[in-house]
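call fold(seq) -> tokens
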Amino acid sequence: MLDVIANLALVSARQVEERVSMSGAIAAIQTTLRDGFDPEDDLARSIVDVPNGQLLLMPAAAGGAVGQKLASVAPGNPARGLERIQAVYILMDGDTLAPIALLDGTALTSLRTPAVSAACADLVAGPDAGDLVVIGTGPQAIRHVEAFAAIRPLRTVRLVGRDAGRAASAAEAARGYAPEADVRAGSLDDITAADLIVCATTASTPLFPSDVVRDDATIVAIGSHEPDRTELDPALLGRSQVIVESKRVAHTEAGDVIVAVEAGMLRHDDLVTMHELFTAGFSPAGDRPRVIKTCGMGWQDLAVARLAV
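ret:
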């Protein structure tokens, strides 16, 4: 065991940031999907309740590599000044399954989640989309500004949060990622003018009503992987083209989808998977919103982790 540890390449959070750009991470996700990988075949993750939160075990095998992420979700951490989601990642040789690198999984998650959002939004958002509203003020909210600035020239960015001070701080941090845009703290009223909307919160009920969303808007919801929690109005999913990582995940973890189906607003048969989006000659709807609902999957971590080693 000591020899295994001694031979591991250790990749710190700083090294993840230095070695993998947001544009590079987005391209890795898109390439993985365009090359034919179907997230439906991704290895299932396990979610275990523990005192003060959850443990997530996320294995993946794709493109000749294997990896495993151990993540924790601690809802009380932000009040302590700590990340809500923390993780370590082990990258393994695809042939021997020998561990070859140990990565800072928190930095990896912070990068790959917005990269997945942008990779899909790049295919369905209008070419002139550039007015972004991000609901949330944490690390994921800020990194989503970076990710969307990598796929569209942003004109305006509004960060919305329950705490005005945190929203202002998040806007200040986000300005460096979109220097040409008008970046400020905002309010939910800004949604009526937005053609790009990101929900990156811990909300358990819808953040805004469906009727405030423009027909040409692209909405990304990343806040939850629990079947009873929603950020989006079920009526919004009912009037939208809904894109999910896989139908398996949508059926079991995507609360926004599950609640909308139970409410009779959406049918599972209407869902578009990422595999279909990238390989089936699929065309985005032009007359209604596009919703991208993600819960996080192991193949996404693996695609980005390989770039860091």
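The chain is about 35% helix and 25% strand.
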